[in-house]
Task: structure prediction
Amino acid sequence: MINNHGVSLTEKPQINLGLEGVYFMESKICKVDGKAGKLYYYGYDIGELAAASNFEEISYLLLYGELPTTKQMKDFSSALAEERNLDDRVINLIKGVPQETNPMHTLSAAMDLIGAYDKSAENTSDNESTSIRIISKIASVVAAIGSIRSSGKYTNPDPKLGHTANFLYMLNGEPKPKEVVKLADTMFLLHAEHSSNASTFSGIVTISTLSDIYSAVVSAINTLKGSLHGGADEAALKMIMSGVGKDPDKYIDGIISSGNRIMGFGHRVYKTYDPRAVIIKEQLKAAIRNTDDRVKKIADTAFMIEEAAIKRTGQKGIWPNVDFFSGPVYSYIGIEPELFTPVFALSRAPGWCSHIVEYLKNNRLIRPTVYYTGETGRPYKEINGR
Ligand code: ACO
Result:
């Protein structure tokens, strides 16, 4: 029997664990070419964007599908700056969670609360404006989580600063040098979008029920948290730091022989070097030329582990992904490891919003099927007779 979408309801189906290779929609937002190791946002090569563009500009690109004119860019930057303030209730929530709370839980709760108060989000004909609020406020929330954890203080946003400069200002309570802002901005740009990855897909599943954009972003945040996805950046840095001073070949052999994975390596789509990791590695090399011993030691260990790991896994198509060198770069910028995944979340917000809004334009409830292999017709026995 075939239903009216061409799906067989009776034959034993092919089961694609992890939905590997399953297409569920058409999209013009992002192309990930896993064979060639290429990545495009709306047709623009990631290498070219990283060299010439910035996070605010690609956020516009991801929301509207075109690069902005000068006026559009100015208006977009002002709109982002205007949305940075956080309600006291959100700041109090962040201050109220226990110190040991995983910051991804705090981020998720804070964004859910912001969504609860954002009545204008109900106007679904202006989803782009809601997206701008989310992109702006998620950065303020992450900065607030970081600064409240480290100093107990919340720093008000500075509307005169750009998005990334303001994030670092709110996080540290003081402005960061231009070259550090530029490096962080490039990192945000590189993390902004990546097609139907797990967190984006979970956001799309949520919006497909006609929930709301905030709820979809909260689903995406909670999905990003896992160590097979966004959580790998913190796990990769921990692995690199444990390898400091050790023989890299023996260290990697030990990880593999104990059945563990090399964090920051491997990808469902890339079977070659992740193009984002290529750029991040170059950024790291340039940054450590004038850095202190601590970060240099971490970076040098990362380069040695990378080489040792590729020797063992490259032939299997397991190469560094975006997370491998991100930790050392964020350490250079002065971001604590526990904040890496929240920073990933603020960077991915434009990609999430872009896909959520795109999906809504041609919405269909996402509801896949499991192939039932259990029994039917089992007789129910009263509890005393079991
Ligand atoms: N280290 C060692 N072996 C690995 C790794 C790794 N990092 N990744 C995959 N493999 C091996 C698996 O053990 C398996 O080997 P086998 O066939 O001998 O059993 C084979 O490669 C295929 O692994 P799968 O898990 O089926 O591949 P999948 O497509 O699901 O993997 C994933 C993708 C989950 C990212 C995986 O590579 C991994 O666990 N990497 C480490 C975590 C990580 O860095 N995640 C971040 C990904 S990027 C991002 O989400 C932003």
Residues 18, 197, 228-230, 232, 261-268, 313, 316, 318, 321-323 surround acetyl coenzyme *A (CB under 6 Å).
